[in-house]
Fold this sequence. Notes:
The chain crosses the membrane at residues 25-45, 54-74, 86-104, 116-138, 158-176. The radius of gyration is 39 Å and the shape is rod-shaped. It starts with 9 loop residues before the first helix and ends with a strand. By secondary structure, it is an alpha+beta fold. It has helices at residues 10-17, 26-31, 38-47, 50-76, 86-107, 114-125, 128-148, 157-229, 231-257, 264-277, 293-314, 346-357; strands at 281-283, 318-323, 327-332, 360-366, 372-378.
Amino acid sequence: MTSVTRTPTLFDGLAERGSAGPRRWGWLAAGIWLFYLVNVFQAILKHGTGIAQVVGFAALFLFAISYLGFFGWLRWAGMQAGGHPTWQRLVYLAGMLGLMFLMFPSAGQQALTCLVYIAAVAMMYLDLKLALGIAAALLAGAELSMRVVPGWTDDNSYGFAIFLGTLAVFGMRRAIQRSIELAKTRADMAELAVQEERNRFARDLHDILGHSLTVITVKAELAGRLIAANPERASAEVADVESLARAALADVRAAVAGYRELSLAGELVSARAALKAAEIKADLPTTVDEVPEENRELFAWVVREGVTNVVRHSGAKRCTIRLSAAQIEVLDDGKGPTPGGGASGHGLMGLRERADQGGASVQVGQSPEGGFRLAVKVGP
Length: 380
């Protein structure tokens, strides 16, 4: 099944814009252009007689009402007009054209002024190709009738007016179409921004709670083993668990508020405590002075993710962190990477996203001791 793409009409465009459509007094702005029907009124008054004059005035009045009514319809009912079939739209225009024909006996050539209004409504209401075809037909009809109807003079004013009116509404139509496209683009960008923020928030929560809960679990297990053998040490570990839980809660609140930033020095201190609780020997740097300020937050995330994985998955006895101005490495002597394991987890996926944003690259693989190696390098 094939679908036909239809060019949005000005009517449809205003419908899509909803509240940005015609304002309460939009019909009055459109009604100003009815001033040019004064010539038709004067022609009926001057040349019409008897029943022809009455019909002419009635047709002129109904024509003006149909033109203004179109804009009223555009406001009150037009917001649902996208589904109107083409034949209904053509019937509306045919009705306006019929009213113009009723003016000919009394207004004569001056009734051709109505063609400008019919062309304008067609450009608003119909598909572009059909609207242009009707406008061209109206222009040709005006020019031809002035040449073949006895007593009518050919001054080219009606054809030129139809052309200018069609061109003006075409420009308005294109502007509305561009406005619709721009609004859709903005809506898509806003939706993408919301999705990106959700991803960022989910990533932060995973990293925050993953690390904190891992350390809490390790310390709770250690406290459980020490309750009988060393109550004082067990009590200290329980106190640490409480402190870590409070810190994790504070981190979550800060993440929700959107103000949370990691400190590389603080993460190294936390890493040392987590490794000690897991009974893993820590070989960590004692200073971060050589790391540029712009790299420290990214490196802090590397420490957090790397140490969490060491404590949770590695089964290692030793963990080493190496720092330089442009690179950080987290190495252990555990069981190393496994296919589909820690090298492709959610934490490392989030770390890769952060590294991409900072122009850095992530490397995962086997360490020289046979364990796991996580490295992040800034720059080429």
